[in-house]
């Protein structure tokens, strides 16, 4: 802590052999970051330029991919700087900003997936009412809500954390997540209850809504024609796979810190990096390969000579 400037510095203690492998880490993570930006941006570009993709389902996919880029940008620039630095430090104020953005955009992911689930439910189960229900206004409300609600709910815990006294200054990780609570001298019961309410609002309720919605879709599809079942499988399975993948990574983030599990540092690093490395690349691959219309435009973009 720098008393002369009244600035509190935290040290990231989750790095493994960063002095020895700093350039290897940097090259690998920089390459992945560029791949994340490019792969997500390509699909967003295709949705933007092709009128037949200007439908609610594809607009939500584009929003989800933009969210992935923002989510990665919250972590990667600072992480890359740390790899090349002698000391892996951050001010407490900057750490709280990263903490807020990390969980705000994570919450947005769940809400966007919930909006996509509702869109699929209306499309498959109420096709005649689809244009009326999923209007442009409805889509705009869903998008704004998905980004604003988590951000607003996380303002209070972030502001309260800024006032808390710290008894430790070494963060057990490589970026600022909920491990910052372990630095505080006192963890109140009120804070625990408040965080559980936020977790319920931005993660658990959307997940339960998504599972309920897709259960209804598959039940109705099973009773319908083969064409309806095929449509349900093609459009719903990618969303479910993305949901399961992201939910498992988020569960690790919440449970490990809550249980204060004493895992080896290397294991912690690998699991922590899964969320910022694997998932943002998984989304464009899943939607690019599994969504028929997007896959068709991707082939035309990269292999125009082979498309008649």
From TrEMBL:
The chain crosses the membrane at residues 23-48, 57-76, 96-118, 139-156, 198-219, 240-261, 267-289. GO terms for cellular component: plasma membrane. It is a multi-pass membrane protein. It comes from Larimichthys crocea (Large yellow croaker). It holds the Pfam family 7tm_4. This is Olfactory receptor. It is found in: Cell membrane. PROSITE patterns: G_PROTEIN_RECEP_F1_1 (PS00237), G_PROTEIN_RECEP_F1_2 (PS50262). Keywords: Cell membrane, Disulfide bond, G-protein coupled receptor, Glycoprotein, Membrane, Olfaction, Receptor, Sensory transduction, Transducer, Transmembrane, Transmembrane helix. GO terms for molecular function: G protein-coupled receptor activity; odorant binding; olfactory receptor activity. The keyword Disulfide bond applies. PANTHER family: G_PROTEIN_RECEP_F1_2 DOMAIN-CONTAINING PROTEIN, ODORANT RECEPTOR-RELATED. InterPro entries: GPCR1_Superfamily_Member (IPR052921), GPCR_Rhodpsn (IPR000276), GPCR_Rhodpsn_7TM (IPR017452), Olfact_rcpt (IPR000725). Belongs to the G-protein coupled receptor 1 family. Residues 39-287 form the G-protein coupled receptors family 1 profile domain.
């Amino acid at each position: 802590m720098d008393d002369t400037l009244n600035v509190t510095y935290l040290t990231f203690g989750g790095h493994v052999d960063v002095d020895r492998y700093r350039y290897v880490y940097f090259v690998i993570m920089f390459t992945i970051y560029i791949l994340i930006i490019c792969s997500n941006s390509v699909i967003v570009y295709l949705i933007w330029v092709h009128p037949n993709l200007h439908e609610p389902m594809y607009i939500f996919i584009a929003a989800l991919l933009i969210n992935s880029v923002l989510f990665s940008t919250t972590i990667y620039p600072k992480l890359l700087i740390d790899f090349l630095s002698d000391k892996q430090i951050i001010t407490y104020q900057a750490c709280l900003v990263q903490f807020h953005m990390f969980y705000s955009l994570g919450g947005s992911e769940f809400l966007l997936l919930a909006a996509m689930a509702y869109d699929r439910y209306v499309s498959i189960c109420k096709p005649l009412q689809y244009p009326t229900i999923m209007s442009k206004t409805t889509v705009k409300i869903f998008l704004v809500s998905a980004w604003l609600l988590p951000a607003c709910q996380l303002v209070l815990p972030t502001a309260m954390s800024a006032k808390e006294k710290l008894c430790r200054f070494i963060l057990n990780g490589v970026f600022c997540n909920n491990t910052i609570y372990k630095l505080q001298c006192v963890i109140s019961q009120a804070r625990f209850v408040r965080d559980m309410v936020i977790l319920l609002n931005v993660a658990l309720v959307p997940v339960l809504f998504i599972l309920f919605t897709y259960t209804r879709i598959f039940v109705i599809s099973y009773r319908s024609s083969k064409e309806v079942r095929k449509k349900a499988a093609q459009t719903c399975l990618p969303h479910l796979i993305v949901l399961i993948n992201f939910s498992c990574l988020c569960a690790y983030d919440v449970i490990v810190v809550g249980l204060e599990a004493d895992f080896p540092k290397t294991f912690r690093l690998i699991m922590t990096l899964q969320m910022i490395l694997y998932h943002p690349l998984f989304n464009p691959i899943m939607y690019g390969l599994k969504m028929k219309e997007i896959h068709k435009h991707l082939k035309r973009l990269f292999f125009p000579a082979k498309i008649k």
